[in-house]
Structures
1.
Amino acid sequence: MLNLVLFGPPGAGKGTQAEYLIKDFDLNHVSTGDLLRSEIAAETELGLKAKAFMDNGDLVPDEVVIGMIGSKLEANKDAKGFIFDGFPRTVAQAQALDQLLTDHSTSVAAMLSLEVEKEELMKRLLNRGLTSGRSDDQDSSIIENRINNYNEKTAPLKDFYGAQSKLHSIEGQGSIEEIAKRLNDAVKSL
Ligand code: ADP
């Protein structure tokens, strides 16, 4: 299995770039943000629990997202590999992912980290808020909170994967196609 962690701050372009990687390498896309939004739309118990955290730009508790990933792996045992988008977001999630993948006799091949400046992120997210209908994209203080949470809790994962020599930093500014090419090259060189 080829398992990739697509990493970067909110607004880095993970969802957009995941589409290219899925096609190029025939992988399953697992976006915890998308999974959580589906749970909210279906008004499940999990969705109700997650909603308040997401609306404030806070992280949903680890056990909730780890459980969702465990179910996805279990349901797709024959997949060629996975792109994890927006997961892991804490060291506890990264440790849980390692354990889950070990249980399935596989591992993380690489972390692809999209690097984008804060000013550009704010611009992209506020722009996306005009069309996405996502309330967490429409308020600059919620966006700030998401970026702060990223810096405090999520960015340290670069050290986690760096220590395993799995970190690949990719310039996340430029045209969508240019960035897709950089990611494609990085995966091919694995
Ligand atoms: P973005 O990367 O732009 O923040 P996402 O769709 O990945 O968008 O995430 C939206 C929200 O969903 C996050 O702010 C957070 O509340 C929640 N979320 C998504 N993935 C996780 C995760 N792995 N752990 C905790 N919360 C998560």
Note: The mean pLDDT is 96.
2.
Amino acid sequence: MTESPVLLPSSPESGRLRASAARAGSLREITLTRPDDWHLHLRDGDTLRAVIGDSARQFGRAIIMPNLKPPVTTTEAARAYRGRILDALTQAGFQTEAFEPLMTLYLTDRTPPDEIRRACDSGFIHGVKLYPAGATTNSDSGVTDLLANCRQTLAVMQDLKMPLLMHGEVTDPQVDVFDREAVFIERVMRPLRQAFPALKVVFEHLTTADGVAYVREADGPVAATLTAHHLLYNRNALFRGGLRPHYYCLPILKRETHRQALLEAATSGNPRFFLGTDSAPHPRGAKEQDCGCAGCYTAYHAMALYATAFEAQGRLDRLEAFASLNGPRFYGLAPNRGTITLERCEAVIPQALAVDGTDVVPLAAGETLGWRLRG
Ligand code: NCD
Ligand code: ZN
């Protein structure tokens, strides 16, 4: 099987996003209910101040990942982090009503059931994030054995309808890195959902056909987020002409058959699938080194990237459900009230963005997108 890194129309060998794909279509612009990002890393401090505008320009709300150092494990820590996010928002020139951070707690082996009750009472915490210990960036305090260590906490989450947001990969070094999601379904997801069938679960940043099939067929309240990079790229992007650290994220990009399954799911209209960028800024130097960090920065051009993926599938008409309607429905929230407009335009993605005295390389740097956000 041939696998080009980016399989958009007219770009099979070069592996480049091409505006010509967009030109082939007829729509000049699309207006959508303002979308939400159901999986976002905003970081903290100067980085937070530098990146927040990228999300706030496009999205009305975002689920904020708690993998800071130290992680956000308590309602009080989440309250303080939320305050810093709102301060950064106003410093970036936005009204606080423009963007609502939906906070999460970082689950550990020792998160007490009472912490879930406090989180629920707060009104601003909308999920609890499972990082299997060691699975990804800043996951050292993650869970070592979910069903052995977190049963009482999970029972309270189930009762209170607090969603569990799962980084769905096993960390067993014996398991091939490309198989970690599929093995997670068997070893963790199925036993968990057998024990807690009414627990609300989001399978975060789904990357495989196995994950898509699981989410489609599962009984009960299960959904999944999909990133723009997993919809646009397969694993060849990591090795195009050399090692490409800015395409390295976790879960890692998979082979083309998996990308096709993700695209099909995203554009199917099935309400279980919705937008979560997993935008994860790292300074260039942290990625370009002998042990580089995982994470792609996509907040800058998120909606243009998703529009490119949906258009390549001939399904721009389904973008609004995926980006703006399915997520709020799962989380029990109303859709946003405003709209955004994307317009057809050959926009070159910058080679780097200035962030916190260093630079961050956005996904697909130097390539041309066929869409951009108006205004
Ligand atoms: C994320 C990060 O950098 O915080 N990295 C990534 O590759 N996605 C963590 C995560 O969501 O796994
Ligand atoms: Zn993430």
Note: Residues 6-16, 18-24 have pLDDT under 50 and may be disordered.
